[in-house]
C-alpha cells in the first residue's frame, strides 16, 4: 500500500554498500543463504576484551555507517544540544542518596557537579547525611574512570567489620568485570586483582575471603570461586562449576551472614546450593534439584528459609518455608498460598516481618506480614498508575524498610516505612532543578483490544494542553520479553517529548508480567507473535481514540524490544512514521542456532531451540526480523549498537540494516549508529547517556516533522 510520510530526509549521500558474501546453512532439511554472515567477527571473544582487534574490513564498514548516519542527522545537531541541556537541567548534579544504615555506619552514593560517575561514601550511623563534612569518601568513580572512553562501576560491598570493600569495574563495555579490594580506612587498594568476573562478590563473615562468579570464554558466568585476600587469582578454589551451557550461575549472601547462596538458573528453571559460613571449605548443599519449568528463590529468616516458588502449579507463585537445618523440598510448608492473578515478584525476611512485592490488577503492591501473628497489610497509594521499588534494609533486626514510589507525573519519592507502626516517612523527593509542575501533565492508562480479545494496558503521559484530535506525535515504547514489566514511572527525559506536544506511551504487551505470569507465557516460545500483535494493537487503539495518527507514531524498543521493532516493521510498516531500535535482537534465528554465543543456550526456553527442534526452528523463522525483511514500505529506521556488546552482538543490527537497504532500497532511510567504545548499555556516564537519549529523541522529533 502507498504510505504518505513527511519528506524529512532529503539530499542524503549514498548509503554504505555492504558486500555480499553468501554463506549457506541447512537445518532440518531447510536451506538458507546469508549474504551478510561475514559481519560476525571470527575473533569476537578476543575483540570484546580488546576492541582494537576488530578486523579492518568490519571497522571500515561500521565507520562508513556512522558517517552516513551523521550526514542524515546533521540538521539535528542543535536540537540534540537543546534536548541534552533540557535533560541535564532536570537532574540535580550534586545529588546524593539517603544512606542505608548498617551497623555503626550508613552507606550511600553521591555525585558532584559535572561528575559522570558515583562516589561511594559512609557516615556515622546517626549523622545527618546532608552534612558533607561527616562523609568519608570510600570510592571516587570519576577518579577511577579518568582517561577511559568507557567505565562502569559494579558497586562497593563492605565486610561485616566494615574494614574492606570489594569494588568492580568494566572499562570496555563487554561486561567482563575486574574486582579490586579496597582498605576502607586508608583508601588504598590491596594488590589483589580478580579478572573476567560477573561483577561484585560476597564476603565471608570474617572479612578474609569472598566468593565471585567467573565468566568463561563464551561470556557465561559458569563457575563460583573462593578468593582468600592476599593470594593470586590462580590459586582461588573452585567451589561450583555448572557444566550445562544453558544455565548461568550467581552468588549471593544472607542478611544474617550465615549462608552463601549459589543459584543456577535459566529463564524458567532454577536450583540453589547453600554453603554455611561456619565451614567455608565444605561442599555446597543442594536444596532442591532442578526440574524444568520450576523456579524457586530463597531468603533466610532465622531458623527458617522463606522460599518463593511456582512449584505445584502455582503459576503466579507462592511462599513456602522450610527449616534451616533441613531445607529440602520434602520439608517445604506453605506460608502464602497461590492466588491466580496475584503475581509475587520478590520477597524479603526480617526478624519479625515477612515482606513481598506483588503485582495485582496490573499495579504493584508491597505487603507486610507479621511473622508471629500472621496479620497482613498492604501499603496503599492513591494514583491510578504508578511504580514501586522495594529496597528493604541492610539489617535483619529492623522494623524499618525502604521503598521508592513514582508515577509518570510524580517525581520519585523515597520512604522509610515502619512495619509495626505503619508510619511512612518521606526521606527525599526527586528534585527537578529546572522545574516541574505535575499539574501541567496528564497520566492515563487505556486498554487496547488485541487480535484475540485480550486487553493490552497502555500507559500515557502528555501535557494537558495537547489537542487529542489525532494530530499529536506519539512515541510508543515496548519491550515484551523475559517477563520484564515496564513500570509507569517518572522519566525526566520523557518530559522533553511531552513539552513538544508528544504523547509518550508505554505498551504493556505480552511477554512481560504486567498482567501476571500468564501474560508472560502468552508472549514467548510458540506464542511470541502475540507480543508483536499487541504492540500493533496498541498503535491502532491510540489512533482510534484520536491520541495520534499512523503518520505520527514513532515506535521505540531496545534489546529484545529491538526484536519487537524489527518484527512490527515487517508486519505493519505502514502504521509507523519511524522506528528506533536500540541494540536490537533482530537476527534471532542465526543467534539461536549459534550455541557459542553468550546468551544462546540459556535463552532457548524463551525463544525455542532451533538446533534440536524443527518445529521451534519454524516458529523463529516465521518472525525473525532479519529473515523476514522484504520489499515493503518501511519507515525511517534508526538502529543503535555497541561494538563490545555481549548480549546483542554488533553484527545483528549491522546485518539488518544491510538487508533492509538491499530488499527495500526506496524506503527508509536506514541509519546505523555503532558506539565503537561501548557495549549493551551504551555510554556509561550519567550525562554521557543523556547524549544518546537526546540523539534518539532528535530522530523522533525530526521524523515527526516537529523540528
Automatic annotation (TrEMBL):
Residues 489-705 form the Peptidase S9 prolyl oligopeptidase catalytic domain. One of its GO terms (biological process) is proteolysis. The keyword Transport does not apply. Residues 1-28 are annotated as: Disordered. One of its GO terms (molecular function) is serine-type endopeptidase activity. Residues 15-429 form the Peptidase S9A N-terminal domain. Its EC number is 3.4.21.83. Keywords: Hydrolase, Protease, Serine protease. InterPro entries: AB_hydrolase_fold (IPR029058), Pept_S9_AS (IPR002471), Pept_S9A_N (IPR023302), Peptidase_S9_cat (IPR001375), Peptidase_S9A (IPR002470), Serine_Peptidase_S9A (IPR051543). Gene3D superfamilies: alpha/beta hydrolase (3.40.50.1820), Prolyl oligopeptidase, N-terminal domain (2.130.10.120). It holds the Pfam family Peptidase_S9. Coiled coil: none annotated. Residues 18-28 have a biased composition (Basic and acidic residues). PROSITE patterns: PRO_ENDOPEP_SER (PS00708). Belongs to the peptidase S9A family. This is Oligopeptidase B.
Amino acid at each position: 500500500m502507498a504510505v504518505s510520510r513527511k519528506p524529512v530526509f532529503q539530499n542524503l549521500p549514498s548509503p554504505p554498500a555492504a558486500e555480499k558474501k553468501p554463506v549457506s546453512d541447512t537445518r532440518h532439511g531447510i536451506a538458507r543463504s546469508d549474504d551478510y554472515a561475514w559481519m560476525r567477527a571470527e575473533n569476537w571473544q578476543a575483540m570484546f576484551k580488546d576492541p582494537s582487534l576488530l578486523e579492518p574490513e568490519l571497522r571500515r564498514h561500521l565507520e562508513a555507517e556512522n558517517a552516513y548516519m551523521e550526514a542524515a542527522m546533521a540538521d539535528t545537531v542543535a536540537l540534540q544540544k537543546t534536548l541534552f541541556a533540557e535533560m541535564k537541567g532536570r537532574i540535580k548534579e550534586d545529588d546524593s542518596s539517603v544512606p542505608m544504615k548498617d551497623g555503626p555506619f550508613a552507606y550511600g552514593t553521591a555525585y558532584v557537579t559535572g561528575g559522570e560517575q558515583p562516589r561511594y561514601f559512609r557516615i556515622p550511623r546517626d549523622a545527618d547525611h546532608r552534612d558533607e563534612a561527616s562523609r568519608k569518601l570510600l570510592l571516587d568513580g570519576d577518579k577511577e574512570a579518568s582517561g577511559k572512553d568507557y567505565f562502569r562501576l559494579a558497586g562497593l560491598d563492605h565486610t561485616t567489620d566494615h574494614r574492606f570493600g570489594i569494588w568492580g569495574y568494566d572499562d570496555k563495555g563487554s561486561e567482563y568485570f575486574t574486582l579490586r579490594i579496597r582498605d576502607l580506612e586508608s583508601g588504598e587498594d590491596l594488590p589483589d586483582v580478580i579478572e573476567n568476573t560477573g561483577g561484585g562478590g560476597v564476603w565471608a563473615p570474617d572479612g578474609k575471603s569472598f566468593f565471585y562468579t567467573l565468566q568463561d570464554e563464551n561470556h557465561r558466568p559458569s563457575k563460583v570461586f573462593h578468593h582468600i585476600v592476599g593470594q593470586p587469582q590462580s590459586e582461588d578454589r573452585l567451589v561450583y562449576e555448572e557444566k550445562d551451557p544453558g544455565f548461568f550461575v550467581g552468588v549471593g549472601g544472607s542478611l544474617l551472614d550465615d549462608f552463601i547462596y549459589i543459584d543456577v538458573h535459566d529463564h524458567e528453571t532454577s536450583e540453589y546450593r547453600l554453603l554455611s559460613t561456619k565451614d567455608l571449605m565444605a561442599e555446597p548443599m543442594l536444596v532442591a534439584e532442578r526440574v524444568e519449568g520450576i523456579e524457586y528463590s530463597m531468603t533466610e529468616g532465622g531458623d527458617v528459609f522463606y522460599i518463593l516458588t511456582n512449584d505445584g502449579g502455582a503459576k503466579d507463585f507462592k511462599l513456602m518455608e522450610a527449616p534451616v537445618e533441613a531445607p529440602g523440598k520434602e520439608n517445604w510448608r506453605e506460608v502464602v498460598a497461590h492466588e491466580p492473578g496475584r503475581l509475587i515478584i520478590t520477597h524479603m525476611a526480617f526478624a519479625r516481618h515477612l515482606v513481598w512485592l506483588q503485582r495485582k490488577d496490573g499495579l504493584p503492591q508491597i505487603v507486610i506480614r507479621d511473622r508471629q501473628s500472621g496479620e497482613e497489610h498492604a501499603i496503599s497509594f492513591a494514583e491510578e498508575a504508578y511504580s514501586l521499588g522495594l529496597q528493604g534494609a541492610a539489617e535483619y533486626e529492623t522494623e524499618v524498610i525502604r521503598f521508592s514510589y513514582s508515577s509518570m507525573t510524580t517525581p520519585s519519592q523515597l520512604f522509610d516505612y515502619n512495619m509495626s507502626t505503619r508510619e511512612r516517612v518521606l526521606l527525599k523527593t526527586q528534585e527537578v532543578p529546572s522545574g516541574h509542575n505535575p499539574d501541567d501533565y496528564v497520566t492515563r492508562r487505556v486498554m487496547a483490544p488485541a487480535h484475540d480479545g485480550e486487553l493490552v494496558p497502555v500507559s500515557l503521559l502528555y501535557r494537558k494542553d495537547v489537542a487529542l484530535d489525532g494530530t499529536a506525535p506519539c512515541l510508543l515504547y515496548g519491550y515484551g520479553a523475559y517477563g520484564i514489566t515496564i513500570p509507569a514511572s517518572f522519566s525526566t527525559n520523557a518530559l522533553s517529548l511531552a513539552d513538544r506536544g508528544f504523547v509518550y506511551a508505554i505498551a504493556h504487551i505480552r511477554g512481560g508480567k504486567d498482567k501476571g505470569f500468564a501474560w508472560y507465557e502468552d508472549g514467548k516460545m510458540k506464542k511470541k507473535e502475540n507480543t508483536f500483535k499487541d504492540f500493533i494493537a496498541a498503535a491502532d487503539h491510540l489512533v482510534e481514540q484520536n491520541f495520534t495518527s499512523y503518520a505520527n507514531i514513532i515506535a521505540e524498543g531496545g534489546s529484545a524490544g529491538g526484536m519487537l521493532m524489527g518484527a512490527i516493521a515487517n508486519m505493519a510498516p505502514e502504521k509507523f512514521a519511524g522506528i528506533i531500535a536500540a541494540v536490537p535482537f533482530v537476527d534471532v534465528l542465526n543467534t539461536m542456532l549459534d550455541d557459542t554465543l553468550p546468551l544462546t543456550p540459556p535463552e532457548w526456553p524463551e525463544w525455542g531451540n532451533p538446533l534440536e527442534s524443527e518445529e521451534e526452528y519454524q516458529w523463529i523463522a516465521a518472525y525473525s526480523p532479519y529473515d523476514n525483511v522484504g520489499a515493503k514500505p518501511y519507515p525511517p529506521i534508526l538502529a543503535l549498537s555497541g561494538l563490545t556488546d555481549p548480549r546483542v552482538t554488533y553484527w545483528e543490527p549491522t546485518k539488518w540494516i544491510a538487508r533492509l537497504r538491499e530488499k527495500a532500497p526506496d524506503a527508509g532511510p536506514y541509519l546505523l549508529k555503532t558506539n565503537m567504545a561501548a557495549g549493551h548499555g551504551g555510554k556509561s556516564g550519567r550525562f554521557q547517556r543523556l547524549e544518546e537519549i537526546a540523539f534518539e529523541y532528535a530522530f523522533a522529533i525530526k521524523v515527526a516533522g516537529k523540528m
